[in-house]
Structure formats: C-alpha cells, structure tokens
Amino acid sequence: MSKKTIRTIKSEPDVLDQLPSGRIGARLRARRRSKGMTLDELALATGLNKSFLSRIEKDAKAPSIATVVKLSRALDIPVALLFGEQTADTDIHLVRTTNRQPEEDPVHGYSFVPLSPAGSNRRAEAFLMTPPPHFSEATHAEHSGEESLYVVMGRIEVKFADRSVVMAAGDFLQFPGYLVHHVRRIGARASVLIVISRD
User: Minimal CA–CA distance to 21: which of 66, 53, 58?
Assistant: First the structure.
C-alpha cells in the first residue's frame, strides 16, 4: 500500500496583518467621524456587523482587503487613505501669520483669532486670545470637554469660583470646561493660546 504524501499549504498572511497596530483602526475611526457617521450607519452602508467594525477601529481585528474596499466605498474615500499611503487635503490645516484675522470686541477690550477650520469636526478647537484688562461677562466661559491655556506673551489671571491662578509667559494650565471661569490680562499686553477639546 502506497503512502499518500500530505502537503501543508501555508496561506499568505493578510496584508493588513503586517501593518503596525493602531494604523488602520485609528484612520477608519477618524474618517467615519469626519463624515458624521455612526457605527450603526457604517454597518448598514457596508453590510458588516457593528461589533466587527468596532473591533477593527480598536485594532482588535485586522480587516481583509475586501473589507477595506467596502469601507472605502461607504466612506467615499480612496483605499490609500485607509492604508495611510495618501493624505487628504482636509487632514492638514495651516494658518499663516499673514492670514490671521483677529475678531475684536472694542467695548470689552479683547480680541481672538480662530485657528481651527470653520465647521470643523475635529475633536479640538484652538484660538489665540488677547484677554481684556478686566473680568467681564463677555469672557465668562463654561462648556463641555477640557480646556488648556498656554501663555504666549505677558501675564494673565484665570478666575474660578473659589480661586484665581496668575500665569506668565510659558505657563500652562488645563482644567475641565464645566468649571466656570473668567480670563483677564495683567498689564498692557498679553496673548494666550487656548485649546478646547470636545468630549
């Protein structure tokens, strides 16, 4: 009786399995959010299971090429964007000094320059502010998310319900946005970079 030779065929690994962890998932999540789509909507558009998509976004599952093609079609973006081989123009936002146009409030004595793109779906919003010389309702703030302040020039005071923080150039402050706060400058000139991250 002749012996049968059993050959073991080693399948080629999925291309995406060879990618570093975090690359596909983070890009997919960012693209989906930029389109204003929920996981349920993406699942409906692709015919894929919601939990499966969630695992892909968390990099717990590497999708096949066919799945990436479905995702790119549903999101109306090139496959290369999900692979990180192409950068969308909207991903990079640059504001040159010459293009900054401050919005001023001469009554309360402050101005600010929006740095983030208008109507942005990004999870953070930044602007450059020249605080007023006095605390006023015009600079009263209370919002969701986190707020970060970095003093570019001069000195400022940030007032909370039960305390005040004086900051000089180079100082950094971060706090939850739900804390009621006011900002004023100390002296003739001051500039502060404010970044508000959304929940």
Answer: 58
Question: How many angstroms separate the most distant Cα atoms in the chain?
Answer: 102
CA distance 21 to 16: 10
At 89, list the tokens.
Answer: 């123009």
**46 CB-side CA count, 13 A:** 26
Q: What is the pLDDT of residues 51-108, one digit of tens each?
A: 999 999 888 888 888 888 889 889 888 787 777 665 666 667 777 877 777 787 777 7
Q: Which two tokens stand for residue 104?
A: 């001023």
DSSP collapsed to 3 states, 83-145: HCCCCCHHHCCCCCHHHCCCEEECCCCEEEEECCCCCCCCCEEEEEEECCCCCCHHHCECCCC
DSSP state of 61: S
